[in-house]
Amino acid sequence: MFRAEWLLGVALMLPSLACAQGAAPRPAPPRTAASAPRASAYVVDIQAPKELRDALRRGLDLERWKDYGDLRQEQLRSLVEEVPGQARQVLEALGYFSPRVEVRLDATRQPWRVLLRVQAGEPSRVVAVQLRVLGPEGTPVEALQSDLLRHWSLGDGSVFDSANWQSAKSDALLRLSTRRYAAARIVASRALVDPARHAVRLSVDFETGPDFRFGPLSVHGLRRYPESVVRNLAPWSQGDPYAQEPLLHLQQRLQDSRYFRSATVGAPLSGAQGDQLPVAVNVIEQRAQRLGFGVGYSSNTGARTQVDYGNLDLFGQALRLSSSVKLETLQQSLGATLQFPRRHDGANYGIDAQVLHSDIQGLTTRSQSLGLQRRRSDGPIQTIQSLQFINEQQQLTGGPVSSNMALMPGYTWTRRRLDSPLDPTRGNLLSAQIGGGARALLSDQNFLRLYVHVLQYLPLGPDNQLILRGELGQVLSPSADGIPQQELFRAGGIGSVRGYPYQSLGLVQDGAVVGGRALFTAGVEGVHWVLPRWGAALFVDAGNAADSFRSLHPVLGYGVGLRWRSPVGLVSVNLAHGRAIGSTRLEFNAGVSF
Q1: Whole-number percent of the chain with pLDDT over 70
Q2: Strands of the sheet with 100-106, listed across from one edge
Q3: Residue 69 pLDDT grade (very low, low, confident, very high; cuts 50, 70, 90)
Q4: CATH class assigned to 347-352+361-590
Q5: Is beta strand 213-220 parallel, antiparallel or unpaired with respect to 276-285?
Q6: Which CATH class is domain 125-207?
Q7: Nearest one of 123, 144, 240, 143 to 193, comparing CA atoms
Q8: CA 259/CA 219 separation, integer angstroms
Q9: What is the pTM of this model?
Q10: What average pLDDT does this structure show over 289-296?
């Protein structure tokens, strides 16, 4: 039989556990006459299982007063008398309801010694869990009860302790309150303990309260932008069932939009209007314009000087303009992107234009491009529908200039599941692209371009990680003639096959390297973090680009590297050897190559 008196004991565990965790204030020592002799310094010897020893030390007043210099002998004896009761409270909070506790004070030696022996016995385990959820009408809701039981953390067979008991109840209540039932509460909870059988039966009763729905949305703090900039980011409509997750999504979208320096989103219960919860958004706007300058270096394209200009409110219509001039050793570019505010359907539309000049591996190209894009993000998934026009002039070393033109519809699907965009340690990225052109639609060649990129981060303990990378691409066409070089494939350099100069792997034509219609690269890298911000790496890469997979012969690159987690992202320095060319290169890169 379960003894009802243990129910009160379990309820009384909570203040004891808080005391054991250091939350309770120290009690005043027992008062004695001023003439009473002082106690000598004393030590406490706790003989108990290792996993219980620290909890006992935290829960005993005797331990907390050990360093009190003015403790008197009578006070010490009084503290020793309280040890058995306090020790049992600590042990009961950890699930041990039948312990044997012995304490003895040895005053014959200096310093005095307090010996505490504990035989904890067998811990009590959960043998039954009953959860009852009363819905808005006051009747049980079986679906909610089943859902809470599936996610209940203190299930059958678990060792019962007060901390996990409170945590399990809090988690269950949070699951209700963040899904439609913001006013959910616990109305009763019981832990019935049978110490003889070391068994505990748990039961919790919940009330959901009203079935809330999203009410009107109010926006505060706007001075420059129309309210539609905020409202179109909300992933719900008024009247939809309430949940906390959409509120978090809206706050993240506001912060990612670049319009606002800060944003908070809330739906306080105090503002409830019947079964509707109004949502309040408070924002602080960013400065509309910014001008940036930068210098840098990459072993791919050499030294870099860059000027960026951005305007978040072009023409006073919340149009976002991003433009940059980039001057690098091997290529130079001028580009601009105009993005429209997000629509209510979740789509972002944009226009981009770029002028690019490059001189890499004996191939000089000059291109002008204009594109239209429709982007949509849904959690980790991003999709891009695009239409791009490219006009390109290319020239091999000392050769004539030829022109290529293409009007390309395209589609890109990307899934990012990374723990950090700047310095990922776990997760993966998968991206797939498809696009093409036709002679009937302003292109010089009929072609279909396919490309897949995979990146995987695997943690190997706290100080090691494995990075796997691969890419595969193919252009299906009668020939490569008439296809712009940026739609063909070359390999080599950081983010590709290390140990080879940037874009040096491809088709050799009149002493220059041009793009091919087939691409394969793969890489494996192991990193050991010697210090929190400094690591050493070993890597092996393989791959190549060619006119077809039949003629593609992968080459090998390998080496060692240094990694630094800088405040602005990962910095990599590699000493890479290209086996096919028999040379070793020092390579440098800042940021993660996606």
Answers
A1: 92
A2: 42-47, 112-119, 100-106
A3: low
A4: mainly beta
A5: parallel
A6: alpha beta
A7: 123
A8: 14
A9: 0.71
A10: 91
